[in-house]
Amino acid sequence: MSEPACQVTEDAFLGGKLRLRQPKSGHRAGHDAMLLAAATPAHPGDCVVDFGAGVGAAGLAVASRVSGIKLVLAEIDEALVEMARSNATANAIAAEALVLDVTASAERFASAGLGPDSADVVLMNPPFNDACRHRTSPDKAREMAHVAAAETLERWIHASRRILKSGGNLVMIWRADGIAQTLAALGRGFGSLMILPVHANAASPAIRVLVRATKGGRAPTRLLAGLVLNDQAGRPTPQASRILTGEGLLPLAIT
Q1: Quick one: which of 243, 224, 235, 230 has its CA closest to 201?
Q2: N or C: which end of the chain has fewer CB within 10 A?
């Protein structure tokens, strides 16, 4: 993290039930992380792995909802890993935070305790801005968190497929205009897809898609009714408010 990013803020999530310290500048957790958590199915005893966890927002939000999971927060930035550990402790949530490049080898994953067929759930919010259309940030940590290389999505999905047990679930959030790329990458080893578009408002095209995919799943793909975040006045819709305050779940989280 760069020098300015060493300054931190403490922010409330899930209606104040989760408090997180995070860098004042650079990549900051927000709505995407909470939507991802609300879309993640988990049960007590599950091994849940958060890829690209940052300060732990999405994974810790899942653990605050489902007690008794084994939570692993995997993040390449050492400073963010330290902050994720601190956030887990401050919120009294048991979690293991690892310095781990999601694109690393199977051997590196295994040495970190994430061998093949070891996870029940993987959730991820990969860097997803197209480098060809996204202005490069002078903040390298922010650039790494937001800008995708051509192979980013496929490599992250490949890593999740390797560590998931048969029947395990991958949950991810991605750009809505990248849905074709997402479906192509998930076509190798995943099925039973559930896709939920996310709209800024009812009159706008979707800006995000939330996708749940099952390793080895064979059920038909389901396209769900979209989630609308704001009404015409720019206020959060009742459904979005329930999700963001932790009082409701998205259909993808229901098994």
Answers
A1: 230
A2: C
